[in-house]
Amino acid sequence: GSVVASYPYDDSPTHRLTGVYSKSADDEVFKYLAKAYASHHPIMKTGKPNCPGEERETFPDGITNGAQWYDVEGGMQDYNYVWANCFEITLELSCCKYPPTSELPKEWENNRESLLAFIEKV
């Protein structure tokens, strides 16, 4: 896990594991939507999720192009964009994939304003 808003494409023509910016035709729209979410999240907006084992990982403005972060061949986000014209971003909301129940109220507080801002953009 991490704390970042990721946008298409997640796959790249070269299929390198990481570091390839895979720009979509709607790249500016996706960046706008990802920033709308990230800029309201207290951790995401810093671009420094500080996840255990990944402390050096950073994301400018709390967002990343999926393939630049890591290549995902055949992902649903890209499939829906290409074949159904659905504009989706992927939200990584926690360093922990399954946070304990006791952490959920804090996660809600971290994400509430981001969710509202994102819904307003839609």
From TrEMBL:
One of its GO terms (biological process) is protein processing. Residues 1-122 form the Peptidase M14 domain. The active site is at E92. Gene3D superfamilies: Zn peptidases. It holds the Pfam family Peptidase_M14. GO terms for cellular component: extracellular space. Keywords: Carboxypeptidase, Hydrolase, Protease. Belongs to the peptidase M14 family. This is CBPD Carboxypeptidase.
